[in-house]
């Protein structure tokens, strides 16, 4: 192993927020280094190849560098960009989307400016904490980057203030009830994760304990005490996950006490949120995200709209009063159940929800839609779905994506039949590398 110290100058950031420097005419990536900063780095070579480049000392600070407001940064790994000013974070995310569209879709387009937040903290209405034993004490927190070593966190600046209040009360009661935390190596213990969902519109919270065994002693008393400590908690649910896996939630939910859902509001429409259902995580950006998607669709009263990967039906219900009909398709049964309840609660007569795989549904080719709204999971859509979409030929496709890599891959499969009209990045996850993107595609003229 050969080590070498060298002074370098950072000229830009890569897609992971690392500083790019040049060593021996090769691009090398250095964490926590910003453009314009000089630094002493240590390189480590094995078998003639660079294995690591470690920052030893910064010689100067970029004017865009700020002091992170979180005491756990950067140890916990939850945020990656908190040392970069928020304005520059937004610019970084715009460039990232443009770069990935060029790289994977071979499309050179200028994205709109990233839509950001006035206050980029306390925005997450859902937080999932691993529960582990750290130095002999039960703790919740986040894993260090690329490890499963827990960094205990007492208050996360990304979590809503109500969420932090609920988390503190749960941790206090876990100690009182002597519930053993999960040990990944030994496969022992009861409490794996804590999932807290909160509502900004109604100031409600839902608590889910992910457990290895639903026979949790004193579970109802635990729930009652928690709801006494934090009256905003509407209910407590156990989610059973006894598998050896990194997947957080198991398939079985066991109601313990109170309600199994909370309510939130988008555009004056009320939605229910349960343990398993998907709901946008940023409490303050949901309406901006959906307004962007709906405005770009240029909907008509005569339109039939497919809401693909519809989740709990939030997008379809939000636009339902602007079109003739909406069909929502989603593979998760719990989400479809919530979607149907949301439509009933809001008296939406022109929407239908189907519990089916989106690819299979569209592949049958039995329906034509004028507009398709698609918001797939992080892994993106499928070639079969996209091919069927091209064959059906809707006038407009609005693609909402939480991963610009899979977005770009999918757009590449549509670009022969569709023109990209507009690309709008939206910052749903401040201080992190993640960026939500809304892309408007228009059917090319025959």
Task: Walk me through what this model shows.
With 446 residues, the chain is α+β, with helices and mostly antiparallel strands. The protein is 23% helix and 33% strand. It has 9 helices and 22 strands. Strand 3 and strand 4 form a beta hairpin. The longest helix has 20 residues, at 86-105.
Roughly how many Å is the radius of gyration?
A: 24 Å
Number of helices: 9
Q: Are there runs of 5+ residues with pLDDT below 50, and where?
A: none
What is the multimeric organization of the chains shown?
Answer: single chain
Given helix and strand content, the structural type is alpha+beta
Kindly, what is the distance between the CA atoms of the first and last residues, rounded to a whole number of angstroms?
A: 61 Å
The shape, in one word, is globular
% residues in beta strands: 25-35%
Order of strands, main sheet, comes to 9-8-7-10-11-12-13
Largest sheet: 7 strands, mixed
Q: Mean pLDDT across all residues, rounded?
A: 94
Helix percentage: 10-25%
Fill in the keyword field for this structure.
globular; alpha+beta; seven-stranded mixed beta sheet; 446 residues
Question: What's the short story on this structure?
Answer:
The chain is α+β, with helices and mostly antiparallel strands and 446 residues long. It is built from nine helices and 22 strands.
């Amino acid at each position: 192993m050969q080590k070498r110290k060298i002074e370098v100058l950072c000229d830009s950031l890569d897609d992971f927020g690392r500083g790019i420097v040049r060593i021996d005419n090769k691009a090398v990536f250095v964490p926590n280094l910003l453009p314009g900063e000089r630094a002493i780095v240590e390189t480590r070579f094995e078998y003639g190849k660079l294995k690591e480049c470690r920052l030893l000392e910064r010689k100067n600070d970029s004017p865009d560098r700020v002091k992170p407001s979180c005491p756990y940064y950067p140890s916990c790994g939850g945020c990656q960009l908190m040392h970069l000013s928020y304005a520059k974070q937004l610019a970084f995310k715009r460039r990232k989307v443009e770069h990935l569209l060029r790289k994977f879709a071979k499309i050179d387009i200028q994205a709109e400016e990233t839509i950001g937040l006035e206050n980029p903290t306390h925005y997450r209405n859902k937080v999932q904490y691993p529960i582990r034993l750290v130095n002999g004490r039960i703790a919740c927190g986040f894993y260090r980057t690329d490890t499963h070593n827990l960094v205990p966190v007492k208050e996360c600046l990304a979590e809503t203030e109500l969420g932090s209040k609920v988390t503190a009360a749960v941790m206090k009661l876990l100690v009182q009830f002597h519930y053993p935390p999960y040990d990944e190596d030994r496969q022992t213990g009861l409490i794996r994760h804590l999932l807290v969902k909160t509502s900004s519109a109604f100031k409600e919270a839902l608590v889910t304990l992910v457990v290895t065994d639903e026979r949790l002693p004193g579970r109802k008393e635990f729930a009652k005490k928690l709801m006494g400590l934090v009256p905003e908690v509407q209910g407590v649910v156990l989610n059973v996950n006894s598998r050896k896996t990194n997947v957080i939630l198991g398939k079985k939910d066991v109601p313990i006490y109170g309600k199994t859902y909370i309510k939130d509001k988008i555009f004056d429409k009320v939605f229910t949120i349960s343990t398993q259902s998907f709901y946008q995580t940023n409490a303050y950006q949901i309406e901006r995200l959906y307004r962007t998607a709906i405005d770009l669709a240029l909907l008509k009263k005569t339109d039939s709209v497919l809401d693909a990967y519809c989740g709990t039906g939030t997008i379809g219900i939000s636009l339902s009063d602007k079109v003739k009909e909406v069909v929502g398709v989603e593979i998760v049964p719990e989400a479809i159940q919530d979607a149907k309840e949301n439509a009933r609660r809001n008296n939406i007569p022109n929407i239908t929800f189907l519990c089916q795989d989106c690819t299979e549904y569209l592949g049958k080719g039995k329906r034509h839609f004028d507009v398709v709204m698609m918001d797939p999971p992080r892994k993106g859509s499928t070639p079969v779905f996209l091919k069927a979409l091209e064959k059906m030929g809707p006038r407009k496709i609005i693609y909402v994506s939480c991963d610009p890599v899979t977005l770009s891959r999918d757009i590449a499969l549509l670009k022969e039949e569709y023109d990209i009209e507009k690309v709008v990045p939206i910052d749903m996850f401040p201080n992190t590398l993640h960026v939500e993107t809304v892309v408007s595609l228009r059917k090319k003229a025959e």
